[in-house]
Amino acid sequence: MGWIFRSATELAEAIASRKVSSEEVVREHLHRIDVVNPTLNAIVARLDDEALADARHADEELTRGKRRGPLHGVPVTLKESLSMAGKVTSCGSTMLQQNVTPESATAVARLRAAGAIPIGRTNVPDMGMDAQTHNLVWGVTRNPWDQALTCGGSSGGEAAAIAAGMSPLGLGSDVAGSVRIPASFCGILGLKPTQNRVSIAGHVPLVLPDYLQIGPLARSIDDLELALSIIAGPDGKQSLIPPVPLQPSSEVRAKELRIGIINGNGTTPISHAVNDGMARAALAAVDAGHHVEPAEIPGVEDVLLCLSRIYGVALSALCRNVRHNPERYHPYLAQLEELFGAPTAREVEEAYRLREELRARMMECFARHDLLICPQVTIPAFPIGTTWNEVELDGAKVPLVSTLVYSFLVNVTGNPSLAMPTGLSDGLPIGVQIVGRMWDEPTILAAARPLLDALGGVPAPPKLP
């Protein structure tokens, strides 16, 4: 299987130069799905017949000198919450199993217009609101590194598929870490773009637009950058997407940057494994010639209060449906309802005030630093079935939500963030996130390339076929 675990950009170049046909590449990835997916349950809707037809058409186009775009003939996978024209888009919910979407999400349509060939749709938690991936429609998705552990969520199926070599590139969505958490747990790369960089038109459900972003997952920085360049920008459907240019990272001077390292403030415990990963990332940044120093965002734990109250309002209709039809929803949603509660008007007002304060604190931090490196999740991947009530952190029991503070942070502030692996701890990948200024994904990507190389790149899970 010579084309498995290659990057999307490598595959695109090989297909364009006729070193391999698109059909051959697609068939190899479909075979990989046959071999690995029964163990992981990452891909829940296969598109074999139409993918092979698309691949043959892509090859025929190349014989006529036509190349649709930079991903011509390259297989990709898509989170099932992203609409595809004429297909059911359910976000893993029994309540949406008849939801045939008439057109594709903007990001999906743009990938296809660039020549990409969807080969499968990937699993999500019920209604996309959990840090692990499970639902009553398709069941549980498992971590490629240890099948007893979660792959993360909510783009967990996508991260597991890419980590296991079933796909070189995919799209997920991130409302509170949902691209970056599974990327970290599965040992790959995940990018949450600046808020409103990418249209979320066609996402199901379309909730919390101030926090939700669609972003790419991959094993290559080049793939992330290419995908972002394809899906970014106004689409005439979502009114708040400004025409902010996306500079190529090759044009960025990513040397001698001022990089702040956030190791927690005492109120947000970080596991030894993640702290060690942070230390490796900091050392790699020093070796690359950057100026590295401690950084802090005062009161970062305020994100928990801020988000829980705003989510409590935004998801009130969903919570009512869970109360009235508990048998139709995964039990974790009832736990979330207890976590959110029903905030008062005064509590909601305070939450919005805190949100603006957090955004101001982040801007103050970036007045001193070009980039920030901080935890993604403060623990490695945890066991499947862990509840929101507690999880283990170095032998202590803590609320699961407390381990996600830094994941939530950049959804509150809107900053772009890249989840990146820093090596292994007890056989599991450990990820950190590199956070940049608003609209400055290019500096993140330019700085991340040498850091990722120094940290060992993106390893393949050793226990899979």
Walkthrough of the structure:
The chain has a single domain, classed as Amidase signature (AS) enzymes. Helices cover 37% and strands 18% of the residues. The protein contains 14 helices and 19 strands. It is globular and about 60 Å long. The mean pLDDT is 96.
Mass-distribution shape: globular
CATH architecture: Alpha-Beta Complex
For the record, the count of structural domains works out to 1
Number of strands: 19
User: What is the SS-derived class?
Assistant: alpha+beta
Summed over residues and divided by their number, the pLDDT gives a mean of 96
Return residue spans where pLDDT drops below 50 for at least 5 consecutive residues. none
Distance between the termini: 12 Å
How much of the sequence is in beta strands? 15-25%
Biggest sheet: strand arrangement: 1-5-2-10-12-11-18-19-15-13-14
What's a quick, concise take on this entry?
A hairpin with a 2-residue loop joins strand 18 (417-425) and strand 19 (428-436).
Give the SSE layout:
Elements: H1 8-16, H2 22-40, E1 43-46, H3 48-63, E2 75-79, E3 87-88, E4 100-101, H4 106-113, E5 117-122, E6 134-135, E7 139-140, E8 142-143, E9 146-150, H5 156-163, E10 169-174, H6 180-186, E11 189-192, E12 213-218, H7 221-231, E13 258-261, H8 272-287, E14 291-294, H9 302-314, H10 316-324, H11 332-340, H12 345-368, E15 371-375, E16 391-393, E17 396-398, H13 405-413, E18 417-425, E19 428-436, H14 441-454
Parallel strand pairs: 2-5, 2-10, 13-14, 13-15
Antiparallel strand pairs: 1-5, 3-4, 6-7, 8-9, 10-12, 11-12, 11-18, 15-19, 16-17, 18-19
